[in-house]
Amino acid sequence: MLPFLKNHPFAVEAFFESSMVLTFAVPKEQLQHLVPPCLTLDSFNDQWAFVAMAMVQTKGLRPKGFPRFMGNDFFLIGYRIFVRYVNQAGKNLRGLYIIKSETDKKKMELMGNTFTHYNYTTTDITQISNGNKVCIASTKSAFKVEVELGGELVPLPQHSPFADWKEARRFAGPLPFTFTYNEHTKEVLIIEGVRQHWQPAPIKVLEHEIAFLGSLHLKEVHLANAFIVQNIPYHWKKGRIEKWNG
Question: Residue 148, class by beta-carbon neighbours within 10 Å (0-12 exposed, 13-18 middle, 19+ buried)?
Fold first, then answer.
């Protein structure tokens, strides 16, 4: 495989039928070792850093400009850390650093690992809706998330570091940029996402058991917020590369 193919060589578009994100606050020193040296943690009150689990049902995912019938429908799961990167122009960019990616179809695993550095694996996904309650679970990946959709009257999670949903929305994700770092070439790959009508709605988390987060052996982990967006057109621009001088 040609290495440049993994650098997001063309723009991609999709329709987000739903994107549900659970964000967890962790003392920042516990996440520092998980991000490359070109990135800094996007922290809150100089104390908390954030790792999130995103569960996204996509429709018609395809190279941008291709007709929709050529797209594919996938369920995507991404575990990512909120970070910042100062680019060569001196601009401070907020974004995400992905530490694990999963999907429900082998085709997406193959395509994702051909055109990105996200290291997709395939897993089973079960989705059950009952009124305003939604449960998403996986036996293979050992997670279960059950939420209740309820709008602005939803209370913040009990141990959230945020004072209100306005503060919490700053860490709702996805952020404008996603970063990948090539340690051998000292290059940063920057992928910009473009969206419209992005209005995350708070949701109440009734249950969450997430084996991958447990495998990170983090201490003092608190659910900080949970949001959902629905029926959103989205696209990712072609990746661009910068040399990082350290």
Answer: middle
Per-residue pLDDT reduced to its tens digit, 190-237: 999 998 778 899 999 999 999 999 999 999 999 999 999 999 999 999
For the residues 157-180, what does the mean pLDDT come to? 92
**93 to each of 80, 88, 96, 117, 171, how far by Cα in Å?**
16, 11, 10, 20, 14
pLDDT tens digit string along 11-41?
A: 999 999 999 999 999 999 999 999 999 999 9
Distance CA 48, CA 221 (A): 10
Domain layout of the chain by residue ranges: 3-236
Q: What is the CATH code of the structural domain delimited by 3-236?
A: 2.40.400.10
- 3-state SS, 47-89, equals CEEEEEEEEEEEEEEEECCCCHHHCEEEEEEEEEEEEEEECCC
Other Cβ atoms less than 10 A from the Cβ of 231: the count is 10
d(CA 155, CA 149): 12
Query: From CA 8, how far away is CA 30, in angstroms rounded?
Result: 30
Gyration radius of the chain's alpha carbons:
17
Nearest-10 Cα torsion for 11, 127, 222, 164:
70
What's the average model confidence in pLDDT over 112-141? 95
DSSP H/E element including 10: none
**8-state DSSP, 156:** P
Strand partners, 76: 56, 103
Q: How far apart are CA 56 and CA 75, in angstroms?
A: 6
